[in-house]
Amino acid sequence: MTGREPNVNMFNMKIPMVAKAFFVMATLVLSGGWANGQTLYSFKQGFPVDGGPNYTGTQDTYLTGTTALNVNYGGSGNAIIGNNGNQSRAILKFTGLESTISAAQALNISSVELTLRVGSPPAQNQDVTIQVYSIDTANAGWQQGTGTGTGLEVGAAAWKSLATGTGGNDFAPNRVQWFGGEGLGTPGSGYGALPVATYLAVDGMDDYVTISLPIALVQGWIANPSSNGGLLFRIADEGVAGAVSTF
User: How far apart are CA 70 and CA 84, in angstroms?
Assistant: First the structure.
């Protein structure tokens, strides 16, 4: 998962270089394809920011319904998406972008790409279309947690709660409900009405997938960090058994 495998998932932004101050992060070498007056910013967990401290701003986990409503998976190695007996959705966000890029600089972003290492778990038996949605600002406070599916973790994200309570149930102290309902609800309530991106997870694949994200979405995360709920990943038809993928 992003937080534990720094060579796996990567978040890139290209910004036209109009001042040297923009070149403040370089975790990839700029060559041929980038020799066009642009600067590449790469946010990749565990990699340094232009010789400075390592970037540690990723949060990611997955949520499972049916039999694991209050369980956290933030410490798991893979994020599961789909239906393998439990309905599962993954959530991912990159925080602290504003520490590298100001809101004024963000206005010059020309493209945003997200790269994931996508793999097929043993339960997958078909190609799967994954839909990527922007998570509603009201759900921006979720925390990854450190659980591996063995029990509830107070304050961490789970299917039933944005922040699980001490008893893990509807009446538990300290529980914070997801806006939109369990599992972040439905399109248009809890997360966006329409996907911001899609990709195809081919049965048996173990490879990198790169998708483009809306520039305005990321500009909003930088200008107003408290609005950064990140991204939700779900399969197009959650009722199909065995339609599962991981990243």
Answer: 18
Question: Taking a C-beta distance cutoff of 8 angstroms, is the pair 87, 183 a contact?
Answer: yes
Residue 21 clears pLDDT 70, i.e. is over it: no
Say if CB 46 and CB 56 are below 8 A apart.
Answer: yes
Q: How far apart (Å, rounded) are the C-alpha atoms in residues 12 and 101?
A: 12
3-state SS, residue 139: helix
Q: How far apart are CA 46 and CA 5, in angstroms?
A: 8
Q: How confident is the model at residue 4 (pLDDT cuts 50, 70, 90)?
A: very low
DSSP state of 193: S
> Is pLDDT of 20 > 70?
no
Average pLDDT over residues 130-145: 97
Fill in the amino acid letter for 92: L
pLDDT score recorded for residue 12: 66
3 state SS of 46 = coil
Note the pTM of the prediction, 2 decimals: 0.87
Strands (E), the chain: 10-16, 38-43, 58-64, 80-83, 87-94, 111-119, 128-134, 161-163, 176-177, 186-187, 190-191, 197-201, 206-212, 231-235, 244-246
Comparing 124 with 15, the larger pLDDT belongs to 124
Name residue, tokens 């990611």. 60
Per-residue tokens: 100? 């590298």
Decide: residue 38, CB within 10 A, 0-12 exposed, 13-18 middle, 19+ buried: middle
